[in-house]
Amino acid sequence: xxxxxxxxxxxxxxxxxxxxxxxxxxxxxxxxxxxxxxxxxxxxxxxxxxxxxxxxxxxxxxxxxxxxxxxxxxxxxxxxxxxxxxxxxxxxxxxxxxxxxxxxxxxxxxxxxxxxxxxxxxxxxxxxxxxxxxxxxxxxxxxxxxxxxxxxxxxxxxxxxxxxxxxxxxxxxxxxxxxxxxxxxxxxxxxxxxxxxxxxxxxxxxxxxxxxxxxxxxxxxxxxxxxxxxxxxxxxxxxxxxxxxxxxxxxxxxxxxxxxxxxxxxxxxxxxxxxxxxxxxxxx
Length: 284
Prior knowledge:
Elements: H1 7-24, H2 29-36, H3 40-48, H4 55-64, H5 69-82, H6 99-103, E1 108-113, H7 124-134, H8 140-153, E2 164-170, H9 171-175, H10 181-194, E3 200-205, E4 219-223, E5 233-237, E6 242-245, H11 248-264, H12 268-281
Parallel strand pairs: 1-2, 2-3
Antiparallel strand pairs: 1-4, 4-5, 5-6
């Protein structure tokens, strides 16, 4: 399947460029707001991605920023693309944040998961067990929609140029028999199968490795083909919310953490053997 441009990424490019043009003119948020007749909160919401910008609003900003004709054309195109709908918009009720939109155009996905197998490699039965455990009041229709959304995400791995997927799994995620022994054996087999793909690497971080650099929990690093336009993003997950980190210092810290985890984990071949052994040990 061919890769498609992500509206989420285009919206991020647009707001980054608007911040750059404002800084280039030496204008503060308050000065922009006064010049275009907006409340300063509107300027902040647009620059932080909490609000879109209309065609007329974009024109006002570009006039104020003295944008060149090429810049105007490029940003108008970005704004049009940002207003389009990605496939994930149909699942807005079960995909509450922008992660999938950022994931959709990633050239590389590097993730550490401490408690469960990441969604891109989950079997349907494993996913259902996870969802039922976390959404104790969910009805069948809601669960089915979450499953459908997760299945749609997996198309990412079969596009013409799939992202490089590097997963480090804590042994706890491998040992926990989610859904029972039969479901977990099938899930482990799915991971081993994915390891055969040239674009997928899986490492297991064993209990024997002791303390490590990400004891606080899971995170994902998203890298993009055009790094100058789309700098790396880090997502940090916990039970209550998801943090998006973009500052260079924050990204560098998590990249260093991931490198430390890779060094402590079993290598990919050893990890595949480990998964096979764990599967054989599961008792019905």
